[in-house]
Recover the amino acids of this structure.
């Protein structure tokens, strides 16, 4: 069974631009979560989608948004990029999501904002 | 606030020794805890999890201990190998919510 796939692997953008990242969950998984990881920090929860609905949201500004499609694939978008948005963005999937279920992570998209 | 903390940012151990990585969690209502390993250039990889109705759980060369009285979690790795070198994260389902909150991580370095 294929793992969680994230594309692209690397991105370089400039301040003010917007970016869209893509995530394909493990086949059969319906929950997709997004995390931001920066050097020296833990993983910061962005949001979680289940059945095309955002079920949970972290403490990030509205410039960060996401969506999920009927096939469970998900995208996240960051508008008006700032230098501080440079990070590794990780997507994780689980079968139904929820409090007591492990997440399976992709390798992430490394975003650099210049 | 939402936080899961780690006591030691870096742990250096000799190959063959046992490693213990500690974690303090903040929400006494959390009932699910999980450890991940992250190698350079990769996403976090599941190691082991434990629910609050247990105090100990063992896997292959790894053991997780949960002390709910002091809100402490630890990961024990037996006979540490060079391949165990990575950053280790603990996480909790903060107050039984639907999201996992991760700690800042501990780097484990294994030297010969």
């Amino acid at each position: 069974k294929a793992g969680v796939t994230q594309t692209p692997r690397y991105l370089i953008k400039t301040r003010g631009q917007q970016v869209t990242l893509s995530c394909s969950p493990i086949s059969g998984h319906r929950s997709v979560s997004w995390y931001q990881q920066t050097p020296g920090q833990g993983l910061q929860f962005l949001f979680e989608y289940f059945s095309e609905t955002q079920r949970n949201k972290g403490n990030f500004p509205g410039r960060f948004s996401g969506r999920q499609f009927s096939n469970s694939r998900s995208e996240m978008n960051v508008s008006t990029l700032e230098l501080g948005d440079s990070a590794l963005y990780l997507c994780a999937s689980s079968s139904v999501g929820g409090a007591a279920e492990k997440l399976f992570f992709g390798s992430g998209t490394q975003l650099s904002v210049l | 606030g939402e936080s899961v903390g780690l006591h030691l940012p870096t742990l250096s151990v000799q190959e063959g020794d046992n490693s213990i990585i500690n974690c303090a969690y903040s929400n006494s209502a959390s009932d699910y805890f999980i450890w991940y390993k992250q190698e350079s250039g990769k996403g976090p990889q599941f190691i082991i999890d434990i629910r609050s109705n247990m105090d100990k759980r063992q896997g292959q060369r790894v053991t997780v201990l949960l002390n709910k009285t002091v809100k402490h979690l630890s990961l024990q790795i037996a006979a540490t190998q060079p391949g165990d070198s990575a950053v280790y994260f603990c996480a909790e389902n903060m107050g039984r919510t639907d999201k996992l909150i991760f700690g800042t991580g501990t780097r484990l370095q294994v030297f010969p």
Q: What stands out?
A: DSSP finds no helices and eleven strands in chain B. The mean pLDDT of chain B is 88.
